[in-house]
Amino acid sequence: MEIRKDVATIDYGSERRQARIIEGSFKKGDLYAFPCSFILRQRGEISEVQLKELEKAAMSNKALPKEILERIYFRAFEKIKPIAREMKKGRWDLKVLKEYFLVRHNHVIEQGMYAYAKAPETLKELCKVQRGRVTDIKKDALIVEYGRGKRRPVLKAMVPDAKVGDRVMIHYGYAVEKA
């Protein structure tokens, strides 16, 4: 994937397609998916350039074309599509996305689906979506307490206005939104 100005170009191998980037707010479901990009990069499923473009879009609050996001995060959409049918809503409906990420995503990890079957416990813990409380702020990071007394630093780029005492949702190495 390559992004120039307001056009994203994705190379499918046999063809290249372009889609216009829509200015506006990233949906929270998009933001929950973004931290997974680092795992996809480690597996070689996306390039370093694609990772940087996804990060740039997430951090600058630009919504990428749905086609691109569905292709990159296809595993999540395998789970989101039946949830959308069950809820009788579109797969991009915010309630559907939150149902997946806030309620069902951790179950996918706990059940050892996909690469989680062989993933170390520390990685599984990072990949889970957790609700926590900000206990300290260090430059670009929030120190978040979650679960039963667990603590970890997460980047605050997606919630720059977070303060000590705020409740936040964390995923991988990011605070994704205030809870």
Produce a short descriptive summary.
Helices cover 39% and strands 25% of the residues.
What would your notes on this structure say?
- This protein has 179 residues and is of the alpha+beta class.
- It has two domains: 2-117, no CATH class; 128-178, SH3 type barrels.
- It has seven helices and eight strands.
- It has a five-stranded antiparallel β-sheet. A three-stranded antiparallel β-sheet has the order 1-2-3.
- Strand 2 (7-11) and strand 3 form a beta hairpin.
Structural class: alpha+beta
Largest sheet: 5 strands, antiparallel
Give me the strand/helix succession. EEEHHHHHHHEEEEE
| Cα-based radius of gyration, to the nearest Å | 16 Å
Q: Give the helix tally.
A: 7
Major sheet strand order: 6-5-4-7-8
- Please report the total strand number as a whole number: 8
**Strand composition percent:** 25-35%
End-to-end Cα distance, whole Å, is: 32 Å
Mean pLDDT: 84
Keywords:
single chain; 179 residues; alpha+beta; SH3 type barrels; 2 domains; five-stranded antiparallel β-sheet; 39% helix; globular
Outline the secondary-structure elements.
Blueprint: E1 2-4, E2 7-11, E3 16-20, H1 28-33, H2 37-42, H3 48-59, H4 66-72, H5 74-87, H6 94-110, H7 121-127, E4 129-138, E5 141-146, E6 150-155, E7 167-171, E8 174-178
Antiparallel strand pairs: 1-2, 2-3, 4-5, 4-7, 5-6, 7-8
Helix pairs in contact: 4-5, 5-6
